[in-house]
Structure formats: structure tokens, C-alpha cells
Amino acid sequence: MSTTTPVPQLRLPGQAAAPEGPVDMAMMYVAHHAFRRDLRDFARAVPLTPVTDRAAWRALERRWAVFADVLHHHHSGEDAHLWPALLDRAQGEDRATVEAMEDEHAGVDPLLEACRDGLTAMVAAPSADTRSALTVRLVALREALGRHLDHEETETIALVQRLLSAAEYDAIDEHFKKTLTPRRLFRLVPWALVEVPTEVREELLGREGGTAHRVAWVVSRGSFRRLQRAAFAHLPG
Questions:
Q1: 14 with 33: CB under 8 angstroms?
Q2: Which among 106, 155, 186, 188 is placed 20 to 30 Å from 72, CA to CA?
Q3: pTM of whole model > 0.85?
Q4: pLDDT tens digits, residue range 168-185?
């Protein structure tokens, strides 16, 4: 069980909580911020995108692939490494909290697939009915994933801070990094940093060992911004 001095925790817009403890959860919170931001934008953009704008629908499908890939990487890493580490130590209600995380992941997956299928259909055979159905699915996914992220930030991260040391969490984090290919990194970094305050972005990119992340930011941010503009072309502003 962790007894190390607490470290400052990052707070970003929309974040439900930032439990104190020895583990720096900044990257977790940045990912959660990006998931919330993306589903907000997809849920707003889809009903506003004209059925006939094939270029925008193709861009939305490509942009969805970035979101879905990062979310899958994030959730599969938690399922394979973080939840088992917590279950090794959790008892009673704490175990129930971790088990709920696994169940919530399973509940999100069908909604992700339904949204992906809806976007694929809009590219292949666009129609107003398909767009309306996709809008409903996106709202449902946004609500389900939002509840899950809130639950994780308020209760499960509190368990991380109570049950794991910073070194133990860093060892778990290494498993995430092993599957972070250069291609995925170059998509993940600009994706993660959209709407993150400049001072937070610079602090994250300036961290020890962050050279690869800064290179990814410099090299790929332009192409990512072009994809953003193409996908969300019909959002106001």
C-alpha cells in the first residue's frame, strides 16, 4: 500500500476529480480530456454535416479511427495490466469498484462498434435516416463513456493512489508504452493535446524522456489540424 508524499495532480476541463496520492496521473487525465472532447465534437458535428458532403464524411471516418484506436489502446492496457494489479490488493468494496471498470469497458464496446458502422454507412451510402441513427448512437456513447470516466476519476484512481506506489504504477505504464508504435505515437500526441492549455502542453512535452513526444508534436500537428478542420468543417467556429 502506498504511503509516499502526494504529488500535485493535473485538473483539466470536464474532469470529475483528481484524488491525491503519490502517483502522477497527468497522462491519464489528458487522455480522458481528449476522449470527452472528441465525443462532444462528434456528437455535435454529425447532425450538422450535410448528407451530401462526402468529403466531410470521409474525414469524419478517418478522424473516428484515430479516436477509436487510442481508446482501444487505453482500455486494453487497463484491462490487461492496471485492473489486475489493483485486484491483487483490493478487498470488499474496492474489488467491486475495479470489477465495475471491467464491466463498463465491455458495455462501451458495442456502442463504439455501432458508431463506427454508422460512419462507414454514411461514407458508403449516405442518408438522413442513417445520420439520425448515428447521432443517437453518439449521444449514447458520450453518456456511457462519460459516466465511466467520471467513475474512474472519482473512485478507481483513488484506489490507485491508495494501493500502488509511484514506482509500481510506472512499471504498469511501461506495458502501455511497449505497444506505442511510432505510427501510433505520431497520431496520439497531437490528438491528446488539442484544447490542452499551452502551459500544460509545454510542461508535458518538457518532461524527462519527452523528446519523442515533442518530435511527434512538431512533425505531425499540422497534418492532424488539417484532419480536424476537414472532419469538423460544419461545427460553428
A1: yes
A2: 155
A3: yes
A4: 999 998 877 788 888 889
